[in-house]
From TrEMBL:
Name of the protein this chain belongs to: Flagellar protein FliS
GO cellular component terms, semicolon-separated: cytosol
Subcellular location as annotated: Cytoplasm, Cytosol
Gene Ontology BP annotations: bacterial-type flagellum assembly; bacterial-type flagellum-dependent cell motility
Protein family: Belongs to the FliS family.
Lineage of producing organism: Bacteria, Bacillati, Bacillota, Clostridia, Lachnospirales
One Pfam short name: FliS
Main location: cytoplasm
Amino acid sequence: MTKEKKQEFTLRISQANRSQLVVIIYEIIHAYMDEAVECNGNGDWNGFRESVRKAQSFINELMEALDFKYPISVELMRLYLYMNRTLIRAVTKKDPEELKGAFIVLEKLKTGFQGITAQDSSAPVMKNTQQVYAGLTYGRQSLNETCQYSGTRYC
C-alpha cells in the first residue's frame, strides 16, 4: 500500500465514529487484497503472501472486536472466518482466483455497514484529534492541494 493511501486511511480513522471505522477497515482489507492480486500478476509471490497476511490481520481485528451479547456477532464471525479461510486457501494454492469469494463477502458487508453509517450520528471514536480541512486550488499548470489544521497541539 502506498504511503499516500496509508495517510488517507489514517486521516479518515482519526475522524471516524464506530460504524465508519468498520467501513474503513473493510476498505483497508480490500486494498490489501487488491495489492495481493497485483503482486501475483507481477510474479511477486512474497508480496502476494505479505499482502494477504496484512488483510488477514485486519480480519482478525474485526473478529476480536465482536461483542457476542448481540446475535449478529455470531453471523459476522462466520463471515469473517469464511473470508479468513478463503485467504488461507489463496496462499496455499498460490491462486489469487481463490480471493473472489472473500471479495464478494467483503463488498456486501461494506455496503451494509455504509447503510448503518448513514444513520449513525455518534461522535468520533478518537478524542483530541486535529480537525483537518483540505482543498484544491488551480495553479497555472497544475492542481495544488492545501491542508489546514485547526487548533494547536503541544508536545
